[in-house]
Structure formats: structure tokens, C-alpha cells
Amino acid sequence: MLGSNYPGLALRPMQRLGLLTEALPEFGRIDSLVVRDFYHRYTVDEHSLRTIEHLQDLAGPLDSKGERFAPLWKTANRRDLLILALLLHDVGKGMPVDHHVTGSLEALDSAAARLQLSAEEKTEVKFLIERIWICPQRCSAGIFSMRLRFRVLPRRWERRNDCSG
């Protein structure tokens, strides 16, 4: 199921029925958890499910912009491990740990044992969990610096929407 083209079609109803936390009890730590930060417009569990749904949208892009990314989703090896990493990546936010990634990796330990992941599979999921938060952090820093730059650029550059300086 996690490796299918549309894992969200199963995960969303499973979450609503309480079956997702039966299959992956670690996910229960973030059920309806509110975190107020730049990355979480929704509860943490909803954020994780929406992330998966946005990825699955690559399987059937709605516009020409998405078409160039469709092969990434369709040809991804071990998509199931990516989805598992996305389900676990923020679980640490519901745990009493110094950094949420530490908690998410602890959750991976218990999930990997129960799901009987091989050492290689666990290493891959660990790699993803450790790095998932880096991309948005870097992107938001770039957006912030671009916004700051637009505030100090001359008006003629603002009108042209030119970031090349």
C-alpha cells in the first residue's frame, strides 16, 4: 500500500478510522497535535498526510508544470520507504525530546522492529528522516532573504520582478 501510486487514498481513511495508529502506533503521538511554526499550517498529522498526498499528485499531474516531475514519482525505487519516512518524520514533535528528529528516529527504531525492516531499509528511512527538514528550512531562508532584498531594491527592479540584481 505505501508503495502504490496513491498511498494517500488508503492512509487518509485509515487515519479517520483509527487504523493508521493501529498499524503504526508511533503516528498516534502526533494525532491532532498543534505546533505553531512556519512549516505547520495544519496539525502535525494532517501536515504529514497532506505532504504524502501532494507527492502522489505527481503520479497524475494536473498541469504542464507538474508533468516534468511525474517521472520522479513514477520511477522512484522503494516509494514505500519514502512514505514511511514521511509518516514518521515529525513524530518526534509529540515526544519529550530536545529535537524532534531525535524522537522521530526513536519512533523509527520501534516501527522498524515491528515492521521487520531490513538494516538497509531502516538506514534508508533514517537517512530521509534526518534530512527531510533541511529542504524547507533552506527554502524558507531563501524566500526570507529574497523578500528582504525586494524591500531594499529600487522600485524599477520590483516592477520587473528581477532577482538577478
Task: Write a concise synopsis of the structure shown.
The chain contains 10 helices and no strands.
Provide structural commentary:
This protein has 165 residues and is mostly helical. The chain has one domain. Helix content is 62%, strand content 0%. It has ten helices and no strands. It has helices spanning 8-17, 19-23, 44-56, 64-67, 70-74, 79-88, 100-115, 119-132, 134-152, 155-160. α1 (8-17) runs antiparallel to α3 (44-56), α3 packs antiparallel against α6 (79-88) and α7 (100-115) runs antiparallel to α8 (119-132). Residues 142-165 have low confidence and may be disordered.
Quick check: average pLDDT? 82
Give the percentage of residues in beta strands. under 5%
Structural class: mainly alpha
Number of strands: 0
Number of domains: 1
- Sheet having the most strands: none
Tertiary shape: globular
Low-confidence stretches: 142-165
Number of helices: 10
Q: Please give the share of residues in helix.
A: 55-70%
The N- and C-terminal alpha carbons lie at a distance of 48 Å
Order of helices and strands: HHHHHHHHHH
Give the C-alpha Rg. Answer: 18 Å
